[in-house]
Specification:
Largest interface: A-B, 44 and 33 residues
Number of strands of chain B: 19
Distance between the termini of chain B: 160 Å
Order of helices and strands of chain A: HHHH
Strand order of the largest sheet of chain B: 7-6-5-8-9-10
Oligomer: heterodimer
Number of helices of chain A: 4
Strand content of chain B: 25-35%
Strand content of chain A: under 5%
CATH superfamily of the largest domain in chain B: OmpA-like domain
Helix content of chain B: 25-40%
CATH topology of the largest domain in chain B: 60s Ribosomal Protein L30, Chain: A
Helix content of chain A: over 70%
Number of domains of chain B: 4
CATH architecture of the largest domain in chain B: 2-Layer Sandwich
Number of helices of chain B: 13
CATH class of the largest domain in chain B: Alpha Beta
Number of strands of chain A: 0
Distance between the termini of chain A: 32 Å
């Protein structure tokens, strides 16, 4: 994992910033979100992919691409979380909504 | 927390650029990542001894194939690759180097190259052997057909290095090491090379032994050429040592009374047994030819040239058969030279006196037995006597003044008779010769000095009208 992080740090930073921007926008966006059912399915899909990556089921290059995608996705989510939080904190006048 | 869930439902649009980013990252990084991991894996194997090591990367998965020289080495090499950071899975395709039984190694030399083949225990020993071969054989092409195998006997490297030294002493041939048994065949480069190799093989490491040694030495050559025009006897080839050298040159000087001895002999070991006796006998035979070549090659003596008279070839061949040491072979190609033109009595006497001025018919001290060294001179005298077939000749024996006169007279007469017999055996009619013994009554020099005495001990040929 450390090796993946050091080798791809630029791309991972990109994912993180993308997530941060998306999180920043998401707080004030008016559009329709993903429904609960869909997001649950998506969570199951993500968990399945993580399980597959941890179990080393997918061999060779696809396996590497899966690992890379999951790491980027995880950082994207982390960026989103931080971004949304910060935006909410800024919007609510330095009192983040819980 | 609730807010976070609410917001998160709106995070999905960012996934689209994320997927693009991911695709770009995968597109750009796959090959660099694979080569980076391959380099790290290779570096991790730097200190392990492996053959045919191959590392192939697919993503982060390594396919590692190699041949290891021990089970322990095989396991530790796989573990080393597994421990490389970033490597996800290792497909272990390693195996042990095949075991050779028997463990055979060989070095073969021909005219232009040395080929090393068979088995070698480790890449390091293989490299060492190649390096040693190149150093020992400076300039000769060294071809490597060696495989790596397990199962080498202990101290293999030392034994193989010693054998490589021996290959340098061969002109062509093959040395094979099968487990601990050494077999050699071929031809040594120099005279004495065979002996040098046999001596070196005594230093084989413990446990190794020589199964067969069929190294041949190049022939031991001695040559003599009698040139009747330049009046020289040229000696070439080899002699075992300086003593034999001096003895042979001295023998040649005695046997060839009118020729100058040109000595081009070189000393070298490797002479066959009985060499000196055989060469002395062969030189004696050559001295009886008017012109001829003598080639002694190992234990074979080849004599060719022209004899002086019809009875001589048979005598020479018989003498050869008797005088050559056991195990020696002779081949004589001796035609008789055409008879020279007849001469009258005066010229005949002149020719006989000239011959006897150049050489002396020798006898064993105090006896009437002809010295074999005088055979050449006698044959020249016979040839001359044959040129004046109608002339009678007195064979006169003389002695020095030592001893009682009665004994000297008897001895000189007996010696004159022996010479006459020799002439008769050569085919001359006995009626033409009279043997007379004068004792010490007709000295030609002073009997007070050894030199004078030696001049007085003589046989003279006197033409009688």
């Amino acid at each position: 994992m450390i090796y993946l992080a050091t080798f791809h740090w630029g791309w991972l930073l990109g994912s993180l910033l993308l997530g941060f921007a998306m999180g920043w926008i998401a707080v004030v966006q008016r559009g329709q979100g993903v429904s609960k059912v869909t997001s649950r399915w998506l969570a199951v899909l993500a968990a399945a992919l993580v399980a597959a990556a941890l179990a080393h089921v997918i061999p060779g290059r696809p396996g590497y691409w899966l690992d890379l995608g999951l790491v980027m996705f995880a950082l994207y989510l982390a960026g989103c979380t931080v971004g949304s939080w910060l935006r909410a904190w800024v919007v609510s006048g330095h009192a983040p909504a819980a | 927390m609730h807010g976070l869930f609410r917001w998160s439902s709106k995070w999905w649009p960012g996934v689209i650029p994320l997927i693009v980013l991911w695709a770009l990252a995968a597109w750009n990084n796959t090959v660099p990542l694979e080569s980076d991991l391959a380099a790290r894996s290779t570096a991790a194997l730097k200190d392990t001894v492996l053959d045919k090591s191959r590392i192939a990367l697919a993503g982060r998965d390594v396919t590692f194939s190699a041949e290891a020289f021990s089970e322990e080495g095989r396991r530790s090499s796989v573990a080393a690759v597994e421990a490389v950071p970033g490597v996800r899975l290792v497909d272990d395709q390693t195996r042990l180097v095949p075991e050779a039984k028997p463990f055979v190694w060989s070095a073969e030399r021909d005219v232009v190259r040395v080929t090393l083949s068979g088995n070698s225990p480790l890449p390091a020993s293989k490299g060492k052997l190649l390096e040693a071969a190149r150093a020992d054989l400076g300039g000769v092409e060294v071809v490597d057909h060696m495989n790596l195998s397990r199962g080498a006997p202990p101290r293999f490297d030392n034994a193989a290095l010693l054998l490589l030294d021996q290959i340098a002493k061969l002109k062509d041939g093959k040395i094979t090491l099968s487990d601990t048994k050494v077999s050699l065949s071929g031809m040594a480069r120099d005279l004495g090379g065979r002996e040098a190799i046999a001596a070196a093989l005594k230093n084989l490491p413990e446990g190794f032994s020589v199964a067969s040694n069929e190294i041949k030495a190049p022939p031991y050559i001695f040559q003599a050429y009698k040139d009747p025009v330049a009046l020289t006897l040229t000696l070439t080839g080899y002699v075992p040592d300086n003593n034999v050298h001096a003895a042979l040159v001295a023998a040649a000087g005695r046997k060839f009374f009118s020729e100058k001895v040109v000595d081009n002999l070189k000393a070298s070991v490797g002479a066959p047994a009985g060499f000196t006796n055989a060469v002395v006998a062969a030189l004696g035979a050559l001295s009886r030819l008017s012109t001829g070549t003598l080639v002694v090659s190992d234990r074979e003596v080849k004599l060719s040239g022209d004899a002086f008279y019809d009875a001589a070839p048979a005598q020479i061949r018989a003498g050869f058969a008797k005088d050559l040491p056991q195990g020696w072979q002779s081949k004589a190609d001796i035609p008789v030279k055409p008879a020279a033109a007849p001469v009258d009595a005066t010229v005949c006497q002149q020719l006989l006196s000239d011959l006897l001025a150049k050489g002396t018919i020798r006898f064993e001290s105090g006896l009437s037995t002809l010295d074999p060294d005088s055979a050449g001179l006698l044959d020249h005298l016979i040839e001359t006597a044959l040129r004046c077939p109608t002339i009678n000749i007195e064979i006169a024996g003389h002695t020095d003044a030592d001893g009682p006169e009665g004994f000297n007279k008897a001895l000189s007469e007996k010696r004159a008779e022996v010479v006459t017999d020799y002439l008769v055996r050569a085919g001359l009619p006995a009626s033409r010769f009279t043997a007379v013994g004068y004792g010490s009554t007709q000295p030609v020099a002073s009997n007070d000095t050894d030199e004078g005495k030696s001049h007085n001990r003589r046989i003279e040929f006197v033409v009688k009208e």
